[in-house]
Amino acid sequence: MTDAAEQLYLSQPAISLQIRALERELDTVLFERHGPRINLTREGQELFEMARPLVAGLESLNTRFNRRMKGDLDSGEVIIAAGESTIIYLMPQLVQLFREKYPNIHVQLRNVTGRDGLAMIRDDEVDFAVGSMLDVPSDINYQPVYSFEPALIMPIGHPLADSERVAIEDIAPYGLILPPRRLTTWRMVDRVFQQHQVPFNVTLEVGGWEVIKRYVELDFGISIVTGICLRDDDKLVAKNMSDYFPKRSYGTVMRRGKYLSPQARAFLEVTEEASLADSTWSSQQKND
Asked: What is the CATH architecture of 150-246?
């Protein structure tokens, strides 16, 4: 009792009062007296065993908290929102590089649309997002990291396939396959055609670059895509359209003023350091 009073900077009577209050709270007897000595009862011993790890945890709480918040990268997680295209084409290499450096940090990817991703960022449901943005809201910080060339893709044997250079007017007679209107690509294509006062015809709206490429291969139409989705084994003809359409940037998206954990900051560093090839390709026919 004396030792407890000294460690807690309390008097022995104050310690006794706290013990009695705890016994009343638990409706049990925790100590029994044998002359000047006191011993734990069976109930007291049981409570002691239950409380010991909790007390030990509290005593080390400050150390563990500072280690985690100030740079312990041997544990923890990072939660990232991204659209389907970003998850398919961009994130695999980034996640692989991150896991090589920080194998014990859990990475969680949330597959979302742009609108849902912004909502998750604003509600702090994710650390940040990776993707492409045309219009950046005032409360959002978008940091472009990579850029990819625009391309017109068509099936092998298409009338435009042998053209050395395709003008935007050349596209007008052919039906376009585009992502849904609510997505960035559709708005960008619409904006460019309007700027050049050239009409265009959308014959099919469908989500996902892989789906679009497949329908182009099947000759359902042609499409304007971002070079990020093109692969050497695509059975397509691709023409660089950077004379008309802007490069598409991809980067990190987060709420302004957002506090980032060490784990999230580490992923951002990997993102900025990663040497991802800019899609600077020449017009070419694939698998002819």
From this structure: 3-Layer(aba) Sandwich (3.40)
Is 75-147+249-273 CATH 3.40.190.10? Answer: yes
- The strand order across the sheet containing 150-154 reads 223-226, 150-154, 237-240, 284-285
Predicted TM-score of the model (pTM):
0.66
Alpha helices, H only, 60-175: 61-69, 84-85, 91-101, 114-122, 168-171
Phi, psi of 192 (to 5 degrees): -70, -45
The interaxial angle of helices 42-59 and 61-69, nearest 10 deg, is: 30
User: Residue 261 and residue 24: Cα distance in Å, rounded?
Assistant: 43
- For residues 127 and 79, is the Cβ–Cβ distance under 8 A? yes
Burial of residue 83 (CB within 10 Å: 0-12, 13-18, 19+) is buried
- Residue 217 corresponds to which amino acid? E
pLDDT at 17 over 60: yes
| Rounded CA separation 241/87 (Å) | 24
What integer is the mean pLDDT of 222-249?
92
Q: What is the pLDDT of residue 283?
A: 40
| Secondary structure E strands in the chain | 31-34, 37-40, 77-82, 106-111, 128-131, 140-148, 150-154, 175-178, 201-205, 223-226, 237-240, 248-255, 284-285
Q: What is the pLDDT of residues 179-213, one digit of tens each?
A: 998 887 888 899 999 999 999 999 999 988 999 99
Instruction: Name the more confident of 287 and 5.
Output: 5
Residues of the chain with CATH 3.40.190.10: 75-147+249-273, 150-246
Report the CATH fold assignment for 2-59: Arc Repressor Mutant, subunit A (1.10.10)
Q: Which two tokens stand for residue 174?
A: 């052919």
